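hey can u check if this looks right to u? its 141 residues, i copy pasted from the old doc so theres a chance i mangled smth
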Amino acid sequence: DLIVHVRDITHPETILQKATVLSVLKNLNLPRHLLDSMVEVHNKADLIERYKPTEENALAISALHGHGLDELKEEMEKKILTATGKKILTLNINLEGPQLSWLYKEATVQEIEVMPEDGTARVKVIISNSAFGRYKNLFPN
């Protein structure tokens, strides 16, 4: 669903390496949308003072120090959700009904926050658009 191209931005041949990787990927006859949505990551940015990527959509990170990893995770999550037609939602459900069981079967439940005072819960899920449509039809409230 996603290609992440990680480059050692300090390597003297980093631009040539990028060209070589892109050439190989193009020769694999991958779907165009996969190449177009590729995430380019410039690693070891901590070794270059005030490094900022000049290439569009490139992210600078330092795997050693953890800099930029949250942004990389967010970008990867966003692109994977787009590519798979899914979304992350937080739904308020009644725990006495069948909603939670349905969500466990039809979606990926990530978090549950139970409100015992009123028998409800906030449920964070990853769900496809079609499954969410079915959910809304089954549980209109």
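The chain is about 40% helix and 30% strand.
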